[in-house]
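User: I'm writing a short report section on ligand binding and want a predicted complex to refer to. Could you take this sequence and nicotinamide-adenine-dinucleotide and write out the structure as tokens? A short remark afterwards would be nice.
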Amino acid sequence: MSGNFNPFEMAQRQFDAVAAKLNLDEGTRALLRAPRREYHFTIPVRMDNGQVKVFQGFRVQHSDARGPAKGGIRFHPDETVDTVRALATWMTWKTSCVDIPLGGGKGGIICDPRLMSDAEQERLCRGYISQIARDIGPFQDVPAPDVMTNGQHMLWMMDEYEKIAGGRFPGVITGKPVGVGGSLGRTEATGYGVVYTVREALRRMNKTIKGSTASIQGFGNVAQYAAKLFIELGGKVTCVSCWDNTDKKSYTFKKTSGIDVDFLMSITDKFGSITKGRAKEAGYEILDANAWIEQDVEVLMPNAIENQVTAETAPKIKSTVKIIAEGANGPTTPEADEIVKSKGIVMIPDFLANAGGVTCSYFEQVQNNMNYYWTKEEVLSKLDQKMSTAFNAVADLAEQKKVYMRDAAYMIAIERVANACKLRGWV
Ligand code: NAD
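Assistant: Sure. The structure tokens for the complex follow:
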């Protein structure tokens, strides 16, 4: 979080605007604009040098009206409770938008795992769970990995929870490695989910991915699998981009005849950085950071980081572009939204476009609770069904009310949660 920007105030402003459009009553507004529960606690960890260091942890459950709270746990030196509150709120809208029976939550620990040994991180994970075990669980609140946390952290946390609860409860946490409760298809889920929504948007324009072109920002987990499926379905991806840690800047990699994803993946490191020299040898043009957005393509997918489609870059979007699908979280600024709107481009908002990840986490939990595991094909076909249905519900409302798709997605998501609160008799 930089400067005075407060993400939770932003999340509340977004909610207020939609609540006004939906004419929500005062009680529902008061209930949904703040988290239902928050836990703040300290975690003493014995470090490798024998001294005890005390870390600050949080877990925020924004809403469990539609089902157990769901959301990641972040490790970050600059973590703040307002960031966690905002992210928990956005999780509520995301799970509701794709209509999975979960609510929204998020957790965090102020720490820098890059400066900690594996043993120290394990003790931190176990310490976090020992503080929060009574307030999470497969039917209460289900954490997952997020910034700087991974499947190993989730397994240590699950193991600690199981020790305390006395049994096997793999559904307490998702994002676990395959073979110890993880789901097949999770690696592909977010990127594929983005492309399922793009396919549906094109279908509503009487077009197909076959014969369409796309330009993608990023080449990490989301971008790689979005590019892979887009190409598999007959489309052409002309650009991807990435951050170069040596030069401390980003570049666009372009091939007019279409990129070869498997080749690019073979020369990309685990942080999503493509080796420039190898790409150049293979005939890729290496262009500046923002070149990806200035291409004559039908589809743009900002799949890297936040704040990329801005008042400066959005005017450069070509008139060929019909769809923007936000694989990343928050890639478009509110000013750029106005420009995109004026160009008549269909905007598939982040909490719809990139909901494939959380949907697959939900499938992981379902499989854990049944103790029966699906094939990758089954997972991906169920994912396609969920994402396509969610997309079309939002697109129908946007057409019917003649509103921007981001507004329609918010309206559907918030109305579903409000309705659950009402049916439960809370408001
Ligand atoms: P990742 O770390 O695997 O990849 C990020 C990619 O973005 C890398 O290729 C990196 O080089 C590139 N990048 C970073 N800064 C850049 C810049 N300034 N310009 C161009 N490229 C840049 O991350 P990911 O898992 O692919 O996530 C990407 C985005 O999608 C994030 O906003 C994340 O929050 C969101 N998201 C991810 C998932 C998921 O399941 N992975 C789910 C929902 C949302």
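A remark for your report: The chain is about 45% helix and 20% strand. Residues 122 and 186 are 23 Å apart (CA to CA).
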